[in-house]
Structures are given as C-alpha cells and as structure tokens.
Amino acid sequence: MDSFPVVKNILLLDSEGKRVAVKYYSDDWPTNTAKLAFEKSLFAKTMKSNARTEAEITMFDSNIVLYKFVQDLHFYVTGGEDENELILAAVLQGFFDSISLLLRSNVDKREALENLDLIFLCLDEIVERGMILETDANVIAGKVAVNSMDPSAPLSEQTIGQALATAREHLTRTLFQ
Amino acid sequence: MAQPLVKKDDDRDDEAEYSPFLGIEKGAVLQEARVFNDPQLDPRRCSQVITKLLYLLNQGDSFTKVEATEVFFSVTKLFQSKDLGLRRMVYLIIKELSPSADEVIIVTSSLMKDMNSKTDMYRANAIRVLCRITDGTLLTQIERYLKQAIVDKNPVVASAALVSGIHLLQTNPEIVKRWSNEVQEAVQSRAALVQFHALALLQQIRQNDRLAVSKLVTSLTRGTVRSPLAQCLLIRYTSQVIRESNTQTGDRPFYDFLESCLRHKAEMVIFEAARAITELSGVTSRELTPAITVLQLFLSSSKPVLRFAAVRTLNKVALTHPMAVTNCNIDMESLISDQNRSIATLAITTLLKTGNESSVDRLMKQITNFMSDIADEFKIVVVEAIRSLCLKFPLKYRSLMNFLSNILREEGGFEYKKAIVDSIVILIRDIPEAKESGLLHLCEFIEDCEFTYLSTQILHFLGIEGPKTTDPSKYIRYIYNRVHLENATVRAASVSTLAKFGAMVDALKPRIFVLLRRCIFDSDDEVRDRATLYLNTLGGDGEVVETDKDVKIFLFGDLDIPLVNLETSLKNYEPSEEPFDIDSVPKEVKSQPLVEKKAPGKKPAGLGAPPAGPPSTVDAYERLLSSIPEFSNFGKLFKSSSPVELTEAETEYAVNVVKHIFDRHVVFQYNCINTIPEQLLENVSVIVDASEAEDFTEVTSKPVRSLPYDTPGQTFVAFEKPDGITAVGKFSNMLRFIVKEVDPSTGEAEEDGVEDEYQLEDLEVVAADYMMKVGVSNFRNAWESMGEDFERVDEYGLGPRESLAEAVSAVINLLGMQPCEGTEAVATNSRSHTCLLSGVFLGNVRVLVRLQFGIEGSRDVAMKLAVRSEDEAVGDAIHEIVSCS
C-alpha cells in the first residue's frame, strides 16, 4: 500500500469513448497509444453498466476504476489495486459535482467542450501529480470560477467583452452561495 | 411528407456533432498564438488560444521542440496582463509544456514575483508551477519562501507548498528535510486539507526513522485529526508502527485506536480501519470481529462502491480466516445477483472459500445460473475457486467435476477453457476416484475442441494417465479419431499417445500396431516419422514382446535438458560419422555474466584490440577450460558456480571466482580487474592456502601475464580431490603480482616493477557445488518412476527459526537443488509446508527430494527429508549434507 492515496488518472470521455479531457498522473501508461488503449478497453468494459444514480466500480488491469455517467459524459477515476476504494470515490464525487456546478444545469459534452478551460482548471485543482489536493466540490468550483480580474488592474484595461465575462462569473459565484 | 422529416433529423445530428474544436488544426492554432505577442493584449482571446493549445495536447498531439519553445516564449509575455483568468491559463500551459532548464530561467522571476503577491491564488499557483519545473539549484533560492508558504494562513497556499514538498522530496530530499519544523506546525493546522498534506509530507520525511513515526502516531492518535483523509493516513501509519513493533505477547499497541476508528462518521475512515485490522499480522478472531461486523453492514449498502470494498476485503480475509467470514454468508449469497458483476464474482469466490461441505451443492446450483451472464475473466476466477474447493472437499468431486464438464461444453475463449482443463487435470491427479470420469470428460472435449494447444496437452495427459486405468481400451477410439479429423500437430500428438498405450498395455499392443501402421500413410512428415519411430521401438514387426525398459524411458521420461541448450548444441553439431550425443548437451541453464561490475563508459583508450568479452554461458566456460592444456585431461565439466565476489565493491582490484567442478578435480577461475589507471599488473596469480580443506591437493595454477587497467583477466588454480567424494573445505586467497607504474599521459609502463600482495576474502567449496539445478516438469511422475529402491527418509529438528519460509529457503540453498512446481513459496501463516526439489548430483545421478516442514511450538521447525535417487550412495550423501549443518 502506498503511504498516501495516489490517483493514477482522471478521465472525462464522451458517449463514444472519445476524450473530452484526461489527465494522467502515473507512468503506467507511458505513451499516448497506451493511454488511448486503456481508455478504449475501459470504456468498452463499462459502457453498458448503469452508473447514473450511484458511482460504479470495477477492477481493471490490476487497477481500481470508479466511474459515473451523466447524459453523454463519462467520468472515471483510477487508482492502484490496493487503494482505499472510498477515497477514490470521494475524488470522483468531487470531480463530478464540481463539473456539475461549473456547467450548471447543462452537464453534457457540448457544454463541457464550450467550457473546456474550466474543466482543465478543475482537474488542476483536484489532483497534483497523483496527490489529492481537494475533494470538496464547492471549494473546487469556487477556486476555478474566481473573479477574472485582478482588482488592482486599471479599469481601462477591461473591454466590454471582459466586463460581460466578469459579470457572468460574478453571477456564477453568487449562484454557488 | 416523409422527406422533410428525415432532413430535420439530419440537421439535429449535425447540431449534436457540433464542437467548438471541430476541424481544429495544430498549424493554425500555432499561428493564432501570435496574439500573445500583441502590444495591446486581449486576455479573453489569449485564454481561448491557450485552451485550444491545451486541447491539442490533451488529445495526444505533440509539439516539436521548436514549436514548444516558441509557444513557451510567447506565453511568458502574458505575465504582463493582470487578468486573473488568463494568468491561471498561463500557469496551466507552462506546466504542460514542461520547459527545459534554460527556458525555466525566463519565467523564474515572474513566478517568484507571483509567489510574493498579495493575491492568494497567485501565490498558491506560482508555488506549484515553480516547484514543478524547477531544478535543485533554483530550489535553494526559493526555499525561504516555501518555508513561509507552508505556514501561510491561507490553506490553499499552505497545501500548494506542502504537496510540492512531497514531490520535491523525491529529487531533493536533503533540502525538503530541513522544513520539518514548519511541516510539524502545519500538522496542527485547523484547515482539514492542510493537515492531510502536512501529515503525508511529515511521514515521508521521517519514513526511515521508526521512532519518529511512532512518536508522531502516538501524539496524533491522542489529539484531533480534522479531515477523514488525514485520519486515513493516520490509520496507515499506525498499522505501519504496529507491523514494526512486532510484539508477540499481550495487547497489541494502538489496536484500541483502530477499533475506535470503526465508529468514525466518515465511511472512508471506517473502511480504512476495518481493512487495517484484517491485515494485522497474526490477527486473532477477537480482534477481527468488530471489523467484520462493519464490513457486513457495508455489504447491504445501496452504494456499489461500499459493497465492492467490503466484499473484496472479506474475500481476502476468507483466505486466512474462513471461519470469521461465515457470519456474512447470507448477505454474500444475496450479492450473487448483484448488478455489478465484479461484486457478484467476489461474493461467489468468497462463498466458495468459506462454504462447508453441506452447502456445496446449493452453491453450485446458484453458480450455474450465474455463469452464463458474466465475462470470461470472471469465469476464470470462479473456475479457480471451484478447483480449490474440490481439493478441500474431495468427497464432493462428483458434483464439482460435473459442473466443470458442463461449462467446458459451453462457449468460451482459450484462457477460460484452459483454466477448466487445467482444473480437471489437477483434480484427476489429486483425487484418484475422479480419474476415470475426468478422463472421459476430457476425451469428449477433444472431440470438439478448436484449440490445438489444449488438444495436444490433453492427448499427452491421456497417454500418461490412460494406460493406468482399469479399462484403457475405451480411450483408444477417442484418440484414433483425432488421427482422422484434426490438423497435423494434433495428429502427431495422437500418434505419440497411441504408442504410449501400446507400450504400457501388452494386451492392446497388436491393435495399436494396426492403427500405427495406418498412420504411416499420413500426409504430414512429422506424423509419418513418429508412427515409423514408434513401430520400430515397440517392435511392431509382428512380435508381441514385453516393452523394453529403455523404450519406456524414451516414451515417458522427461527431457531433462533445457531446450535452449539443446538448440545450441544441435546447431553446433556438424553432420559426420559420429551420431549426435544427447548426453553432451549441458544440463544447467545459466546465463550469468562472468564479470558483472564494469565501470560504465570508462573504456581504456588506445589499448589496441578490445578485451575479449567474458564468456557468459556454461557452454562458454567449457570452451574456455578445454582450451587450456593443463585442464584438458580433467574430463567433462560437471558444473560451474555463479561468480562469488572476493573483494568489496570499489576496491583497487576487483576479483570474483567461479568454481568449476569435475569428477576428480576442482578448478577455481579468478576473474580479476585492475581498477587503477596508473598501474599495470604483471604475473598475476592467486596463492591459495588449502590447509582447511584437507581433501584437496593443488595440482597446477595458471597466472595472467599482464593485467592492464580495466581489462578483465583470468587466473586459474586447479585442485585434485578424491573421486566421487563430495569434498568440502575453506580456502584462503592472496592475490600476488608485480606492479608497474604507468604514465597516464603516454600510457607507457615503467621498466621496473615491485612485487606486491593483496588479501582476498576466503572461498568455500560446499556440498551444493556438487549439485546441479535441473527441474522436472511433473514431480509426481518422476518420483514414482524413480521407485523406492534407494529411498532414504529421516527426520531433523532445525531448531528455532525466524519463519517457516526462511527455513525452507535455507534448506533449498543448502542443497542447491531446483524447487519444482512452485513449492518454494510458503503461504503466510501456514504451519506446515511440503517442498519438492530436483537436481543432478556429481556423476550425473538424478536426485529427487521431498521435504516436509512443520512448526512445533512457537518457532521450532522440524523437517522430514525423503530422497530418491538412482544411486544409494547419493541418497546418503544428501542426508549427510543436511545432518552436518
């Protein structure tokens, strides 16, 4: 057993098993080909299961994989075979819920791609090189959706578009509270 | 009307396929990245371009070195913008581009500025980025800021520094270890995640200091731990302390803490504690009970993750403490129908491990329904569980064998079928009553088997087991059918099997001859050759004679030669009057290089021809020795040991020795390397003092003329010993040589040298040197065919031992024999063990050994040693080896 919980990868795939966003933290899959092969067989193995109400779990290639689906999005978290399943479940839950918060009502592939920057930031806030950073979805989403402007920046630097974006993000923030 | 409707559907499909990244192309995005250089930055547009770059990388596109550098340089310009969102994207892309050391310098000052910013988000992210891309030299510059950050009042900043510390510990341990005080302070943090990260880092820093970890655990188990994650860590470190404390008597320290964690409010903590308790070494059933109880509750949870975690842990417990798990059997049975097939399979195999004899039939019925709707990989697990169940309850073989034969008839892939066939074969071997029905099931299977490998395996097995049954004739039909219906490989295997029946069962001989003669007209060479060969060896020209013992050995004996060696020997054989002699093939597999240590990349320059590569196989040793005239009359080389180091690593002269054993001689081959560039050694020899090895007399030695720097050389010393006696003894060695100074600039040695000596470590010849590791594929067969004629059995007390496994491996090493069928592995917690060994003793005598170990009292190990060999004296010699040590 590792001396602290280690996450090997976090995957967000679409309903055909294609990548929306993925992040690998382990050297188990050294090449992109190896990663794609893992995603393909994992998707084939899990696509038929019903992981929509509760997260599901399986053993796969001496790894433990937890997964949950919503609409056309498939969320996966992988850990070593000796890992505490419930810790990995907490990571998956944090990932799933924070994405749901960030995409608001529309949690589907299209919305995810349109806000891909938020998804990348979200992955960055959950795990750093295998070590769990945060599992509380509210905290994760809050960190991702911070006010876009540095308060010290001069107002003149803001364009109309930025002002609108700031407004939108401000709205997001108020929605979380 | 239908037409427009379809069209509308098409439109909607197009819409569903819409993606902001549709048709995205690397070249175009790299062009777009030029906006990073604009004097008036548009943060939103820049963020979008970075997202596109990240998208490309995430999809597996890769940038060339030039492209990555270009992007990196333009990204660094974005530090000018004060837009928070853009800055975050800049952090992300820098991490993804993983810049090289000379590029890192460009962003270092910007990142260091951010590290000291008032904005928490800047500080936290700048720390993570900088620690990710930095190397050791920069780390000393920023160390002060990192120490501050660890105790920062903002938890995100503190966590960023702590997590970075965990990763930096791998590359720069001495620096991170200096942060102990700050980390210690952070362990007391009120922020849940900071405590978790600090605890993980502190344990990593102190992992080699048992006492410190123990202290840490002691103080924390009394204090408050805020997050479930940190509590899980504490449980892990507590069990580590328990493992290392190794107390044998009285209450286990910290058990109460683990038990109290079973009542924690977070499920992950409850589970971590339950699992830790089940994994305690030598756990008692009293200690297990509370853990099993919480796991049992999890079994009926609505969450698949909880059910899975619980049943997987119970499955492991069932291996060592089946009785403790039986309370959960009812819950487990209801899991057989679980939607999640991983859970169902785990439940089944656990039940198979804990079930008693009376529940077997009911279980089998449930499993039969279950098998049809799970994947092959799960089925294999079930088959293996059923096999061990059958070995546990041999009386139930009928229903279990029926189950196996039923699933053998159903659809399935190769691995699955192989698992079934292997199980049936093992049951036939171990349960005599199951033999006849098992063989018939296998016969039926090969009637319709699509896997050549399995057919040939089964035919081979039939040839060995079939003739020993009461009515061998009933198998002939199945076997002969193969000759008509199958491919050449299977046909050839069938011919061999038929011949085996002919050899063993005299009554069947005439009929077998008829069948074999028909095979002479087969279309395949191999099949015809085999048929002709067997007809000749069995005396198929009409005479019904008792089969010769030699023929039986030829048909049934093991090919006790490694195939690699046979292949090399056959390749070296040149067609001549002299037939190929199979006895000339070396029996020992070894490919250990003679000289292992060689300074890498330190080749002597200008020394002319490269040094002759050290011979690396037994074959090569033999060639080397036979090329030396002094040793040419020693006869055939029996065995060469692996090299034994006679010097410490990193000394002036590196020497190791290989012991070559002949019937009446022993040759020591000293492999020497001179590791001093300024020296040339001449007339190098080893002076051996054999006063503690009475049976040996030195006959000759062969020095090395010259030993330049870093070029291996070999010197030999040969001893005579009484024929056939396994003489043992201790030899002390002294390296003697003439040393000459070498001018490093010219590489020329001086004229005059000085005589010098160098003490080497002692060398021993032990009994195991006379034994060759030669395995057998089927120990039981070999044991039976060796017969009881020269069996020697005796019992020994081995005294107190560390563990059973340690005792087993000590005896294996003492005898120097090859463990067979994986019997060298001892199950943890078992109190008895049987180990099967095979080898060839000096004089080419086959030896088989059966060792039975048992623990008496707390640690005393007793051993029963049974030896069978072709020579009575060898059996005695083996016992002598054991009793003398």
Automatic annotation (TrEMBL), chain A:
InterPro entries the UniProt entry points to: AP_mu_sigma_su, Coatomer_zeta, Longin-like_dom_sf
Family matches, as Gene3D superfamilies: 3.30.450.60
Record bears the keyword Glycoprotein: no
Span of domain AP complex mu/sigma subunit: 7-146
A cellular component term, taken from the record's GO annotations: COPI vesicle coat
Cell compartments where the protein resides: Cytoplasm; Golgi apparatus membrane; Cytoplasmic vesicle, COPI-coated vesicle membrane
A single GO BP: retrograde vesicle-mediated transport, Golgi to endoplasmic reticulum
Membrane-related topology note: Peripheral membrane protein
Keywords, ordered alphabetically: Cytoplasm, Cytoplasmic vesicle, ER-Golgi transport, Golgi apparatus, Membrane, Protein transport, Transport
Residue stretches in coiled coil: none
Function: The coatomer is a cytosolic protein complex that binds to dilysine motifs and reversibly associates with Golgi non-clathrin-coated vesicles, which further mediate biosynthetic protein transport from the ER, via the Golgi up to the trans Golgi network. Coatomer complex is required for budding from Golgi membranes, and is essential for the retrograde Golgi-to-ER transport of dilysine-tagged proteins. The zeta subunit may be involved in regulating the coat assembly and, hence, the rate of biosynthetic protein transport due to its association-dissociation properties with the coatomer complex.
Family: Belongs to the adaptor complexes small subunit family.
UniProt protein name: Coatomer subunit zeta
From TrEMBL, chain B:
PANTHER family, alphabetized: COATOMER SUBUNIT GAMMA (PTHR10261), COATOMER SUBUNIT GAMMA-2 (PTHR10261:SF0)
Lineage, uppermost ranks: Eukaryota, Viridiplantae, Streptophyta, Embryophyta, Tracheophyta
Biased amino acid composition, Basic and acidic residues: 589-599
Record-level Gene Ontology MF annotations: structural molecule activity
Keywords on record: Cytoplasm, Cytoplasmic vesicle, ER-Golgi transport, Golgi apparatus, Membrane, Protein transport, Repeat, Transport
Pfam families referenced in this protein's UniProt entry, alphabetically: Adaptin_N, Coatomer_g_Cpla, COP-gamma_platf
Span of domain Clathrin/coatomer adaptor adaptin-like N-terminal: 27-538
Top-level taxon: Eukaryota
Function: The coatomer is a cytosolic protein complex that binds to dilysine motifs and reversibly associates with Golgi non-clathrin-coated vesicles, which further mediate biosynthetic protein transport from the ER, via the Golgi up to the trans Golgi network. Coatomer complex is required for budding from Golgi membranes, and is essential for the retrograde Golgi-to-ER transport of dilysine-tagged proteins.
Similarity field: Belongs to the COPG family.
Entry protein name: Coatomer subunit gamma
Species annotation: Salix dunnii
Main location: cytoplasm
Membrane topology, as annotated: Peripheral membrane protein
Region annotation (Disordered) ranges: 589-614
Domain Coatomer subunit gamma C-terminal, chain residue ranges per copy: 768-882
Subcellular location: Cytoplasm; Golgi apparatus membrane; Cytoplasmic vesicle, COPI-coated vesicle membrane
Gene Ontology process terms (BP): endoplasmic reticulum to Golgi vesicle-mediated transport; intra-Golgi vesicle-mediated transport; intracellular protein transport; protein secretion
CC terms in the record's Gene Ontology section: COPI vesicle coat; endoplasmic reticulum; endoplasmic reticulum-Golgi intermediate compartment; Golgi membrane
SUPFAM superfamilies associated with the record: ARM repeat, Clathrin adaptor appendage domain, Subdomain of clathrin and coatomer appendage domain
Domain (Coatomer gamma subunit appendage Ig-like subdomain): residue spans on this chain: 620-765
Subunit description: Oligomeric complex that consists of at least the alpha, beta, beta', gamma, delta, epsilon and zeta subunits.
InterPro entries in the cross-refs: ARM-like, ARM-type_fold, Clathrin/coatomer_adapt-like_N, Clathrin_app_Ig-like_sf, Coatomer/calthrin_app_sub_C, Coatomer_g_Cpla, Coatomer_gsu, Coatomer_gsu_app_Ig-like_dom
